[in-house]
């Protein structure tokens, strides 16, 4: 039957017009991708560059291919017909999706997408001239079962004019523009190590990323597409590991995290394995080392201002209990249980969030200003309590438990662990970072180790009577020590207020301090009543405390960029502001940065934000404009596109009077900026 | 027809000596395989030792395969290879129920209707041979030299389109490599990116 089908089909082909799209039997009603050619401006100015979009909509169940289609498939090919002097750039694609069919990898689009193209308008074109744009697009579109090569003849007729862009069209293009990957200015490197391809991408540790990481290679043949990859954040770098196919002189590609993408080019070099769990077999060793590191870190945390006061109180209670009275071992165990359990719970939540795809780090609870506010109130309360303003009335059930001291010890432990997490960051970074990429049982072991470390000194005191005997006898000095211990606690509160200010701005900090003040009044009031021996000493103070806690509902993170310090007097970049400053005859230094750009951060710390440069800028009356492209702001994207295709960092120097800015190199020095601002 | 499927599966399970997903690299020894051809005869790769063998992955429904068959380009290449003393094995790794899958009689009709000139048309419904060689597209071509080493892996030519008009100006990688092998010269393009439809493996 097949030959009959073949003959019939061949005959049909002779008569069919769009032959190429009619080759797949029944499913030949095309096109399976609807493509529209849209120009951002229909009246482009002579000599300008405008953006064209291939707004594409695949039929449900069909997919079109990315620049590198993967194991099979084809990228689209565009043949342009343009008037002399005009030119079209390469297609720029949004971040694709992965589609594995029967073990073969396809890099595709299954939903509407729009590759963009830059069109150069002839410089000698005259106003009112027609600018016909024609393009023949050859592309492949497939389902899981069949493939159909399609052709599209697209055209649009532009008229040379003033370059005006209608607002609705601009917003449409801006949406497409934000979907494009951003060029990562900093070069990456890669190494083929046996059967493993290892790629290292410089990326600041502080920059946030969400979603699963994946490297889409543009260079064919470097890695096995269908094999799973390992993407690890390791300090100021991201390491991608995949099975290698063959050594190549250069590897280009797209690093994607969720819908965010970064274009990069990697040269051969030496790439160290990611610090954690390099080989799958090695993770037990890594986990063990991380566990020991976590224990050591936990011990160090005991002398941190946030933990020490709590610990000391507990030690004092042991001293009070003396050797015979009480149950020091039981208390020590209960305290340990409290600490370890809290650490495990926090770690479990973190791992749960990690599994859910959220990008969180340790101290994730500290990224929310509401939690900071709560901790601020807690720290203030503890400080005031240590200072002797009031006594904590233990609830009846806690009192009964505390009669043996164990319930109280457990709660103290839990509190110590919860409060310790803000201090954990700097000391524990490595161990916790490891925990985040280890298999979950090993990760939990690391969190447990941290808790054990915090509890260790107390455990020793509980179990070694000799140590306890070394502790001084109880006496009036204890009250003095307690007052003194309130000082680090007050400092902790101060630090938390500062963090709150960083996160929620001046308003948020004022709100937090107000809430702390309100709570302090409440404690004071209750303390006075306690001193008088009034019954229900806390009743009148409770509403004040609740009000203070309610402030947490009001505090909001400050808008992004509001707390960016940059250079004194620096303003957010806008083309309007740039024009104003230039009209005023001032030299302007405009720089474009992003949180994910390591070179930008290095330049900012090493050159731009230094005192010497700030002085030189002030002396030369240099205006500084900062463009933050972290979230791919399309307005900035258009501007960067016009000046430098490579993305950020981009440093522009506008000398008064000169028409065009000077594009500064991507590595800045203080001397360079000082010379420029002194008119050199 | 079901007899063919059962037999094919049986042979694939019992006789096939191809390690799974062990794509051979150019210059290294290729894995051996055994499979039924379209007449129900068992074909063993090792029986061709000493001869140059071309493997061609085929799916008659794929537009890229049609490009090369309807234009006669594939048949011409097959005839030239066989005339040079090479063995040409066309292999179908399409799974039952998927586009391009054929049983023996269907394959015979296809070969006859197209005037194709393979030494044998092999059926690989389980995709064992295809996965063993890392065949990704239809067409996808491999050349194995007389010593059993992979000499070429990739596309039939350097114009990855479905357009027949492109054949005239394309470099036929397979003919070029066969010519170089015969002349005792190293294969200048030993690897290229195969293009076409994905091989419709059983998932």
TrEMBL record, chain A:
Domain Thioredoxin: start-end pairs: 552-673
A cellular component term, taken from the record's GO annotations: plasma membrane
Transmembrane feature ranges: 288-311, 332-351, 371-390, 410-438, 444-464, 484-500, 506-525, 537-555
Mode of membrane association: Multi-pass membrane protein
One Gene Ontology MF term: protein-disulfide reductase activity
Claim: Signal is one of the keywords in the record: yes
Pfam families per UniProt: DsbD_N, DsbD_TM, Thioredoxin_7
InterPro entries xref list: Cyt_c_assmbl_TM_dom, DsbD_gamma, DsbDN, Thioredoxin-like_sf, Thioredoxin_domain
Subcellular location: Cell membrane
UniProt keyword list: Cell membrane, Cytochrome c-type biogenesis, Membrane, Signal, Transmembrane, Transmembrane helix
Signal peptide start and end residues: 1-22
GO biological process: cell redox homeostasis; cytochrome complex assembly
Record CDD domains: DsbDgamma
Name under which the protein is recorded: Thiol:disulfide interchange protein
Organism: Sphingomonas psychrotolerans
Automatic annotation (TrEMBL), chain B:
UniProt cross-references to Pfam families, sorted A to Z: AhpC-TSA
Signal peptide location: 1-21
Domain Thioredoxin: 24-179
Keywords, in A-Z order: Signal
MF annotations from Gene Ontology: antioxidant activity; oxidoreductase activity
Protein name per its UniProtKB record: Thioredoxin family protein
Species: Sphingomonas psychrotolerans
């Amino acid at each position: 039957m097949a030959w009959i089908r073949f003959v019939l089909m061949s005959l049909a082909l002779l008569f069919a017009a769009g032959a190429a799209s009619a080759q797949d039997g029944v499913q030949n009603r095309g096109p399976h991708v609807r493509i529209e050619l849209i120009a951002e401006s229909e009246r482009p100015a002579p000599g300008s560059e405008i953006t064209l979009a291939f707004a594409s909509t695949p039929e449900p169940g069909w997919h079109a291919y990315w620049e590198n289609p993967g194991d099979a498939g084809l990228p689209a090919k565009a043949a342009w017909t343009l008037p002399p002097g005009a030119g079209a750039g390469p297609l720029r694609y949004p971040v694709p999706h992965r589609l594995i069919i029967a073990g073969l990898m396809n890099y595709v689009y299954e939903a509407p997408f729009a590759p963009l193209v830059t069109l150069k308008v002839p410089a000698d074109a005259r106003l009112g001239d027609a600018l016909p744009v024609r393009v023949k697009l050859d592309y492949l579109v497939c389902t899981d079962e069949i493939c159909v090569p399609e052709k599209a003849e697209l055209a649009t007729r532009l008229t040379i004019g003033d370059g005006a862009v209608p607002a609705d069209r601009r917003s449409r293009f801006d949406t497409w523009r934000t979907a494009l990957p951003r060029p990562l200015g900093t070069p990456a490197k890669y190494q083929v190590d046996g059967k493993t391809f290892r790629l290292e991408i410089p990326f600041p540790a502080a920059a946030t990323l969400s979603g699963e990481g994946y490297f889409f290679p543009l260079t064919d043949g470097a890695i096995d597409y269908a094999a799973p990859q390992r993407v690890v954040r390791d300090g100021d770098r991201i390491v991608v590991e995949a099975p290698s196919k063959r050594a190549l002189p250069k590897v280009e590609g797209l690093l994607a995290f969720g819908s965010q993408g970064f274009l990069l080019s990697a040269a051969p070099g030496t790439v160290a394995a990611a610090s954690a769990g390099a080989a799958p077999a090695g993770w037990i060793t890594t986990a063990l080392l991380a566990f020991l590191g976590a224990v050591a870190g936990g011990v160090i945390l005991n002398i941190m201002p946030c933990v020490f006061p709590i610990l000391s109180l507990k030690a004092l209670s042991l001293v009070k209990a003396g050797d015979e009275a009480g149950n020091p071992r039981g208390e020590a165990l209960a305290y340990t249980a409290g600490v370890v359990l809290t650490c495990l719970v926090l770690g479990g939540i973190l791992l749960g969030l990690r599994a859910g795809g959220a990008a969180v780090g340790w101290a994730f609870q500290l990224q929310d200003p509401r939690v900071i506010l709560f901790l601020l109130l807690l720290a203030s309360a503890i400080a005031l309590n240590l200072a002797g303003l009031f006594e904590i009335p233990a609830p009846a059930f806690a009192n009964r438990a505390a009669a043996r001291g164990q319930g109280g010890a457990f709660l103290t432990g839990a509190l110590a662990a919860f409060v310790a997490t803000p201090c954990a960051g700097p000391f524990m970074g490595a161990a916790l970072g490891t925990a985040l990429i280890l298999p979950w049982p090993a990760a939990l072991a690391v969190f447990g180790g941290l808790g054990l470390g915090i509890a260790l000194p107390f455990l020793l005191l509980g179990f070694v009577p000799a140590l306890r005997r070394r502790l001084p006898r109880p006496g009036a000095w204890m009250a003095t020590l307690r007052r003194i211990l309130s000082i680090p606690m007050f400092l902790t509160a101060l630090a938390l207020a500062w963090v709150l200010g960083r996160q929620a701005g001046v308003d948020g900090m004022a709100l937090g301090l107000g809430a702390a003040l309100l709570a302090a009044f409440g404690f004071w009031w209750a303390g006075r009543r306690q001193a008088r021996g009034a019954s229900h000493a806390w009743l009148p103070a409770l509403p004040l405390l609740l009000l203070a806690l309610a402030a947490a509902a009001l505090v909001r993170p400050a808008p992004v960029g509001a707390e960016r310090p940059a250079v004194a007097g620096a303003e957010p970049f806008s083309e309007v502001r740039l024009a104003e400053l230039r009209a005023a005859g001032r030299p302007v230094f405009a720089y474009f940065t992003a949180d994910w750009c390591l070179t930008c951060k290095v330049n900012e710390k090493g050159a731009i934000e230094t005192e010497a440069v700030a002085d030189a800028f002030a002396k030369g009356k240099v205006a500084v404009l900062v463009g933050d492209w972290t979230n791919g702001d399309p307005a900035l994207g258009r501007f960067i596109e016009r000046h430098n295709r490579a993305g950020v960092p981009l440093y522009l120097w506008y000398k008064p009077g000169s028409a065009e800015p000077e594009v500064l190199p991507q590595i800045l020095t203080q001397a360079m900026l000082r010379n420029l601002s002194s008119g050199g | 027809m079901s007899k063919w499927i059962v037999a094919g599966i049986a042979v694939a399970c019992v006789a096939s000596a191809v390690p799974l997903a062990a794509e051979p690299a150019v210059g290294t020894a290729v894995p051996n395989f055994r499979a039924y051809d379209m007449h129900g005869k068992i074909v063993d790769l090792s029986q061709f030792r000493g001869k140059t063998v071309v493997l061609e992955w085929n799916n008659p429904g794929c537009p890229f395969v049609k490009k090369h068959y309807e234009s006669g380009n594939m048949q011409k290449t097959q005839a030239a290879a066989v005339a040079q003393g090479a063995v040409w094995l066309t292999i179908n790794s399409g799974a039952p129920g998927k586009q391009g899958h054929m049983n023996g009689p269907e394959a015979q009709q296809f070969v006859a209707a197209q005037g194709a000139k393979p030494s044998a048309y092999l059926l690989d419904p389980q995709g064992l041979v295809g996965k063993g060689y890392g065949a990704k597209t239809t067409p996808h071509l491999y050349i194995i030299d007389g010593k059993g080493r992979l000499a070429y892996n990739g596309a039939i030519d350097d114009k990855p389109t479905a357009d027949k008009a492109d054949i005239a100006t394309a470099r036929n990688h397979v003919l070029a490599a066969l010519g170089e092998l015969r002349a005792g010269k190293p294969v200048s393009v030993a690897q290229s990116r195969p293009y076409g439809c994905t091989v419709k493996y059983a998932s």
